[in-house]
């Protein structure tokens, strides 16, 4: 987000209603009081942001969205506005990442993991700092991957493999006969590359364009003692050569990410999906397969029809061998209060097994 154009000083005496009004107007509040009180103020701002439309029992119900796509865009718009408002509460940092506030935690390790070595004093939103702390906990504790029987440790800015159903699809799909070399396109944390190596692929080439992801994957693969079996390559989509198996789990929704972490969810104009399908046939060995792991949430939201996906298969010279489906198990799939509940409840994640047409 751009730096705020106006900043005022706030402290323990600043009323939450005043702080919320200023934040909504785009005025940032640079905190000079007790750190724990700043956290309480942020919670108060969040409550006001989440209930800003409540006007009592007699309030007129908002007009329902005309379509699932409209509901999705309104939801993203509301989430973006909420994020901008909550980002207006700022905390100061010294050059060594010390926070010069009463009862402030030691976040030097947290900030070093996310930002690298500190060079000069700066300010950041408290909401961002809490996100860094959460990312540090993910990295420290890891995510249990049942299909691996191991934990994967995501780094800050690298999407966490918390949706285990797509990993299970890769664990259960039958491998191509005599497959020895695999490509993992957009490896992220390295979870699928590790799984393919554990399934017996002699060599796996895993690609990504994000240096954070490559660093994260390298650390995970070394921890799993798979560093010699999996080679990490900084590349956009495919490495050089051909493989017996090529796996890709691209972002599932066409759209523009509003933060770097959202690049694992939103793919502008389906660029990665289209690039993978357009280049897949040319990188497959004879008899090889490409595995596309993709949710149909975009279809239920009216963002990308099934016909468009099938047309991309045809344009890429690809034929479908089989499709393996699984229903998501994450909490939002059963949350009736979610604005996108209807689409999430109908969502299916699929592993499409594709081959090059003869």
TrEMBL record:
GO biological process, one term: methylation
Keywords from the UniProt entry: Methyltransferase, S-adenosyl-L-methionine, Transferase
SUPFAM superfamilies: S-adenosyl-L-methionine-dependent methyltransferases
Any single Pfam family the record assigns to this protein: MTS
Matches recorded under InterPro entries: DNA_methylase_N6_adenine_CS, N5-glutamine_MTase, SAM-dependent_MTases_sf, Small_mtfrase_dom
MF (Gene Ontology): nucleic acid binding; protein-glutamine N-methyltransferase activity
Signal sequence segment: none
Region described as Disordered: 48-67
Protein's UniProt keywords contain Plastid: no
Domain of life: Bacteria
Annotated Methyltransferase small domain residues: 175-294
Protein name as catalogued: Methyltransferase domain-containing protein
Organism of this sequence: Massilia glaciei
């Amino acid at each position: 987000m751009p730096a705020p154009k106006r900043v005022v000083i706030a402290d323990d005496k600043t009323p939450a209603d005043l702080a919320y009004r200023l934040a909504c107007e785009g005025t940032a509040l640079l905190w000079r009081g007790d750190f724990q009180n700043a956290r309480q103020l942020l919670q108060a701002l969040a409550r006001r942001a989440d209930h800003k439309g409540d006007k009592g029992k007699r309030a007129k119900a908002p007009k329902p969205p005309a379509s699932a796509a409209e509901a999705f865009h309104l939801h993203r718009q509301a989430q973006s506005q909420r994020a901008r408002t909550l980002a207006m509460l700022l905390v100061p940092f010294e050059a060594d990442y010390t926070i010069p506030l009463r009862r402030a935690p030691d976040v030097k390790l947290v900030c070093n993991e996310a930002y690298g070595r500190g060079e000069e004093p700066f300010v950041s939103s408290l909401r961002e700092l809490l996100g860094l702390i959460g990312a540090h906990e993910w990295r420290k504790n890891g995510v249990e991957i049942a299909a691996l029987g191991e934990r994967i440790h995501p780094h800050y800015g690298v999407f966490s493999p918390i949706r285990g159903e797509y990993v299970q699809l890769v664990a259960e799909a039958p491998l191509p006969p005599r497959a020895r070399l695999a490509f993992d396109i957009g490896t992220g944390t390295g979870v699928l590359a590790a799984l393919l190596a554990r399934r017996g692929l002699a060599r796996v080439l895993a690609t990504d364009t994000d240096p954070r992801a490559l660093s994260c994957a390298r650390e995970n693969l070394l921890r799993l003692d798979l560093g010699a079996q999996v080679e990490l390559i900084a590349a956009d989509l495919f490495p050089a050569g051909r493989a017996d198996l090529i796996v890709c789990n691209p972002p599932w929704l066409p759209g523009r990410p509003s933060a770097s972490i959202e690049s694992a969810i939103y793919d502008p104009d389906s660029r990665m999906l289209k690039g993978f399908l357009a280049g897949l046939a040319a990188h497959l060995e004879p008899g090889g397969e490409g595995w596309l792991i993709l949710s149909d949430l975009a279809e239920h939201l009216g963002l990308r029809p099934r016909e468009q996906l099938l047309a991309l298969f045809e344009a890429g010279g690809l034929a479908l061998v089989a499709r393996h489906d699984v229903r998501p198990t994450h909490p939002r799939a059963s949350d009736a209060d979610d604005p996108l509940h209807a689409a999430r409840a109908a969502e299916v994640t699929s592993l499409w097994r594709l081959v090059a047409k003869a």
